[in-house]
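Budget justification, computational time. The allocation requested in the original proposal was used primarily to generate structure tokens for proteins on the priority list. As evidence of use, we reproduce two of the resulting records. The first is shown immediately below.
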Amino acid sequence: MEIPQTSLLKGKSFLITGGAGFIGSNIVKYLLEQGAELVRVFDNLSTGCIENIEPFRDLPNFEFLQGDIRDLNSCIKAVEGVQYISHQAALGSVPRSIKDPINTNAVNIIGHLNMLISAKESHSLKRMVYAASSSSFGDSTISPKVEGQEGSPLSPYAVTKKVNEMYGDVFSKVYDFNCIGLRYFNVFGPNQSAENDYAAVIPLFMKAAISKTPPTIFGDGSQSRDFTFVENVVQANIKAMINTENLTGHHVINIAVGEQTSLNELWLLIQKISNTKLSPAYANRRAGDVMHSLASIANAKELINYYPEVRAEEGIKRTYDWFLAKNP
């Protein structure tokens, strides 16, 4: 992965909120492997998994702080003394937000605001990066998706992620506090769980292939996504934290690959990799789902020197190997 390594991370301290979760734990792993001076994880373990960070618990440069971003005092404590924040803690899933908009709002908006306030008041912080979402594009039919050309949100989850961006912009203008939102497009890879009611499509497809059971596809399968392997997202977070000293203001940046894959194509690929032949079961399309999502990553290239190194097919192969090793 062509991103800042040991020499550039030496002496630097990081806070990863949601660091026991899927994306957060991959960022933590990279930072620790590359010799960061301090990597502090702040997580309430509501959706994160302690197993994801267990290998790091005894390392001298690792700290785990169990707490909730909905509590401002806990956020202030978590931020103390760190130079860089990668704010990954959130409640994901469009269906979850439709079923429970109040809790999604509390975690994603109040929690995000608490982190912004804590970061703004910090005397040690150099840069805060946070997880934004492609859901902010809403019902926009423009393709590829370009920052600044958003539509109306299609779910409570999308509303919360859009509000995150609005707060980031306001904090930049009112408090001169500058941060960067990374708009993720359908991230997948190791440490992503298939064992919950709101699991994403790729881990569910992996589970189906390994267990030899037909997967469920909501809709006709023609809906497409810009599937983004988690290693690319790690690259984006590190570069956005480390390589942006001269970048002022609030920026929202698409993080994707710039390639489109339909759900039917995705399942065909996984069948080929896993050597299975199973016809999917089709169900009614879910409320709040967008039909097509493809990103322009021109701004990411220009602003943070982001170049995705793992394409979707290679990422799917690596992810299948990880799931197979975990579920032999």
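The second record produced under the same allocation is shown here.
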Amino acid sequence: MPGPAQHQPDQGWTGQIVEDDGGELRLAALRERRRVILWTVALQTVLVLVGVTAVVTLARPLLPFLAGRPILHVAAVATIIGTFAVARSPSSIIAIISECKARGPFTEMVLGVTVVMDVLVIMLFAVVVSVSEVLIAPGAGMDFGLLMMMSVEILGAVIVGVMLGWLIALYIRRVRADLMIFILGVAFLVTFVSRHGGLLLDRWYGLHLQLEPMLICITAGFVVQNFSREGDRFMAKIDRGSLPIYVVFFALAGAALQIEALRGSWLVALIIVVARALLIWVGAYLGARFGGDPPRYWKQSGLGFVTQAGVSLGLAAIVMSRFPDWGAPLGTIIVAVITINQVVGPPGFKVALNAVGETGASRPEAASSGRAVGPSSPAGRA
């Protein structure tokens, strides 16, 4: 992995957010909808990653910062953008579900796929960025020891996340006081220890090893939600306190937006948005069909996966810092793509929820009977 000079403290903001995302992974819903979730995750990941990478490679004449770069360099940059295209926004999806009072199999499928893919993209991002650094470095060959180191980092992050989740659950059960402050403190502590631990290992042993703070926090949230009795209290506190974190994060992302760079690459950003949306629709359509969903879900599935935010913004900041030569203009394109998707994605998801009849307004039987229609009820399974 890169040396410690490239580790960024700003990931601490992301830590609290991805603890939220990890907490939304509920095993019961994942088991019930596992077939369609697995099909959709697999197809969307492959189609979007490969398709967007190919589109960016073909569009390289429109990217000034790639002018004169060798083909391996272009391929590395295109793959990084393709990896970003895989990312979703669980927090936005959850907000829309809450606003629409949506319940049912389609809602569970979209949420499950979104959260799983946001966890997957962090591991995929670590692999792609590390391999890209090898490809871009002049005269560097493929170092398979690096891949082994990445495996150790991912496994180590999961192990630390499991222990951290157990400690958070213990704190909630035994102490309870100032829970939000405690969670924020944990997020900053994870980031600090990860960054400075990697720095010390590099300085003392020449070992470029850093556990990924975002993967640690996602694992911790997953453990608290699914393997303790404190999941509901944990998520309630996270939901109440997450808004200021998002405000700061979006403010930082907006401050990093370079208008001059965007003027020269807005066309590429638009091309990526359109290509990503089409590939998502194809992957979701096929995933719903192969996964055994009813036909009324097939055409609507793609509308649930356009939205981006959250972890994507944190990863964009990492790209800017780790690739100083071209990271800023690339980060500008990525943030522009995320912004467009965040604008058009939520309305599209609302349209899909209404079309499949899983919003509160589209469930007249729930209003007349005074009970919720969820996936466990006959109406929810219809």
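A brief technical remark on that second record: The radius of gyration is 21 Å.
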